[in-house]
UniProtKB/TrEMBL annotation:
Main location: membrane
Similarity annotation: Belongs to the MAL family.
The protein's name: Myelin and lymphocyte protein
Topology of this chain in the membrane: Multi-pass membrane protein
Keyword Transmembrane (UniProt): yes
InterPro entries hit by this protein: MAL (IPR013295), Marvel (IPR008253), MARVEL-CKLF_proteins (IPR050578)
Keywords: Lipoprotein, Membrane, Transmembrane, Transmembrane helix
Domain MARVEL: 16-149
GO cellular component terms, semicolon-separated: membrane
Amino acid sequence: MSSPGSTTSLPSGLSVLTTFPDVLFIPEIIFGGLVWILVASSKVPFPIVQGWVMFVSVFCFVMSIILLCLYICSVHGGSSFWVTLDAICQSTAALFYLSAAVLEAYSTYAFRITELGLIYRENIAAVVFAFLATLVYVIHKVFSLLRWKSS
């Protein structure tokens, strides 16, 4: 077990916004919100794909905001359970976003010829931000798992 003052515990208060990997909540929320907006405003030929991408972006957006608020309010109280919860949440979000980004990219690629220019550009932007969100969640996941392992 680590000592209460070690760097493997979760930060509390506004130090969440200055410690790595917890500072990654900010780009996660920004990129996730952009994916949510772009997918909601674009036409996707497969409704099930749009539904999954919307679910993933909304779920991860809300999860990141809730975790960020709970960490800022110091709800975790230094418990090791919260380190495990953080690792599970980040791993789930990374896996979900990877699947959503791949599906969005495939549907955009498959219907690139039939789509209008503006709609195609919106779908391309959604794909780019989905992969950026995936990258941020994967980085956060790796460092959360390292923190979990050392706690």
